[in-house]
Structures are given as C-alpha cells and as structure tokens.
Amino acid sequence: MRAAWLLLPALAALSAYYVYLPLPGAVSDPWKLMLLDATFRAVQQTCHLIHYLRLSHHLIVLNYLICTFDKLKSVSSEDIKITDAVFDGVEVRVFEPPAKGDESLKRSVVYIHGGGWALASARTSLYNNLCRIMAESLNAVVVSVEYRLVPEVCFPEQYHDALRATKHFLQPDVLAEYSVDPSRIAISGDSAGGNLAAAVCQQLSKDEDLPVRPKLQALIYPVLQAFDFNTPSYQQNMNMPVLPRYVMINYWIDYINGNYDLAHELLINNHTALNVGRALSFRARLNWTSLLPPSFKKNYKPVVQSTGTAAIVERLPALLDVRAVPLLADDATLARQPRTYVLTCENDVLRDDGAMYAARLERAGVPVTLDHFLDCFHGCMIFTVWPTDFSAGVQTRNSYIKWLDENL
C-alpha cells in the first residue's frame, strides 16, 4: 500500500510532464489543446511502433483508430439529406438542405477535407458535422470529396481524385440534378484539402472547355508549399500542437512518396539551395520578406543554403510541381483565380503559406479576404464537437461560413 502511495504521485508527475507544453499566452483553451496534443502524440507513437514491428503501415493504423473513435460520436442530420455517390469514379458525400417553396436553385460548396493527404474522411463526424452545418447555414448543397489516401496512393492521385469529382459535379446536367445554381459554386478545403482545393481551382481556370466555373475559393489554413520550411511561421511554431514542423515535413514526404531519411535536408532547405538550378526560377514567388506583413515576419531571418542537394529535387520532382505546390503558380495563372478567402491562424506552421498566397493573388488582381486569428491553431475549425470542442473552432467556423454567406 505504501508503495502505491509513492507510485501514484510519480505517475501523476510523469503524466503532467508528458502533457504539458509551453504555449503562447493568447492561444485558445491551452490545457484542452495540451491534452489533445498529448493524446495524438501517444497514438502516433503506438502506430509508429506497430509500423516498426512491420505489422502494418503507421498511417493505416492511425486512420483506423481515428475512424473507430469517431464512430462513438453521433451527428444529427434530421433536416439535411445525406447521400453517398460516385462522381467519375470518386466517392463523395452530398449534403442537401430541404427544398423551399420560394426558390428554384441553391448555392453549392465542393469541400475537400484535410488530414495530411493521409488521414480522416468525408464520412467522419468531424467533417460530417462541418458540412451539415454549412448546408444548413448557407441553404446550400455541399459535396464532400472522399479522395484516396496515403499510403494507398501518393501524389498526384489525391489531386486527380479531387479534380475529377469537381469537374463531374460542374457538368450542367449534374448541377441540374441537385438543383444547383451554376453561377454560385465555391471550391473549399482545409489544410491538405486546402492544398487540393487551390490546385483544383488553378487547373479549372486553365480548362477552356469547362462549361461552369467556380465563383469562389475558400482555403482554410492551407498547406501550399514545400519550398521553404523556415518561413517565420515554421520557425515560430516549430513545436506547436497539433502540427509541429517535423510532422508537416513527414506528411510531405509521405504525399510525394519520398524517404524519411530526407527529412533533415528538407528541414534546413537543402532541396532549394542556391546551387539547385531547378529551384532558382521559383524563389521570387515565395520570397516571404516581400510577401508577408511586418507582424508576421517579426525578427526572423531567411534560411537560404548556398550549397545544397540538387539530387533531392531530381528524386522528388513533385517538390516543384505546381499541382502539389500551388504557391509556385505563375502570375498569369493566379490572375485567373476566383474571389478568394484565406483563413490563417497565428499558432500554425502553415500561417505564412496562406498569407503569401493571399498576397500573390491580390497582386495579381484577385479580390482576396485574409481572415487571420491570433488565438487559434492549426486544425481548430473541425474541433467543435465534445470532447474536442474548442472556442477557436466555433470562432473560425462562424467567420468562414459568414464570408461564404455574404459572397456566394
């Protein structure tokens, strides 16, 4: 008994040490965020052990656990018709509000979920809940794309899935089937889904035969570049939950089918050093010293290697492929983009990806709204359901839906 009394405080101290992280003073719900991050880290470590033992790929196990936990949550859909369909070989989930007598056609949003191109699903309650609320609040048809994930497929298959599903939906006969107004359609996504949404919008703008084009794009803390992993936000938030820098680099490696041995070279920007000829022409398009406001740049300095490893780009050409890295698009492509909303969070490694894209779009003549939240963190918008309910989630979701309602 005496040993137990000694052991319990020791376990409590170890648990507190594992959970506690120094967080910025302004971050929303800090202790709840620490608990969420500690849970996610513990699950990831378990999945990596299973991977190390060669029992299964860690991402498959992690996604299985996420979906299993998610099934414990029920989401009401009494007023919204939810159906699963297949658009040009790609699974989608469609959310339809009830018809109203005083209208003939509805607005619509094509939504592409996040998860590092490897996790989550259009069918999980987190995204089911988001899309249902969007459909209700906007009285809009919401199409949530169920693209294939890493490790089943890697780039460019996720991009092709999102593009095929979107182009199918934009056909006049399909829009008529769902009573959608062809002039009031938005393409949207969060995180890796924001990456796919931006890439899809860029490609659609180049398709001269497309009969219907999106009116808007709305990108939620999007991941838009793998050129520079030392932007001010990557430096400032390198250890920030729920997306520390090394995790984002690993997601990129998984997405472009690389090797984790390259993680350190990517981290120090060896892949885009001054001696890497293929990267030189893109450098001005990601020059954060001219694209970011002083409040984002702070006192951080660029990390530019004079001599790096050109072979990385040779082995992984997707690092400079605009379909994977939308921020590398040329000015002519950006000028063709629709009115754009970009949501960024201060406590997020991806903050500057979104801010740089907004700045480049604005310089290209595109109307842009950059909606920045000082107390929020990456992924927060989907965390609105107990036990992962955050005030930051409700705050960002309401602002996002408000912009769509006013502009769509």
Radius of gyration: 21 Å
| Domain count | 1
- Alpha plus pi helix count: 17
Structural class determined from secondary elements: alpha/beta
| Assigned CATH superfamily | Alpha/Beta hydrolase fold, catalytic domain
The 3D shape can be described as globular
Task: Give helix and strand order, one letter per element, not per position.
Answer: HHHEEEHEHHEHEHHHHHHHHEHEEEH
Helical residues, percent: 40-55%
Number of strands: 10
User: In what order do the strands lie side by side in the largest sheet?
Assistant: 1-2-4-3-5-6-7-8
Taking the sheet with the most strands, its summary is: 8 strands, mixed
Can you identify the CATH class?
A: Alpha Beta
Mean pLDDT over the residues: 90
Distance between the termini: 66 Å
Strand content: 15-25%
CATH architecture call: 3-Layer(aba) Sandwich
And the CATH topology? Rossmann fold
- Uncertain residue ranges: 6-18
Could you describe the 3D structure shown?
The protein has 17 helices and ten strands. It has 408 residues and is of the alpha/beta class. The protein has an eight-stranded mixed β-sheet, with helices on both faces. It has a two-stranded antiparallel ribbon with strand order 9-10. Helix 2 crosses helix 3 and helix 5 crosses helix 7. The longest helix is centred in the first third of the chain and has 23 residues. The protein is globular and about 65 Å long. The relative contact order is 0.12. About 3% of the residues have low confidence.
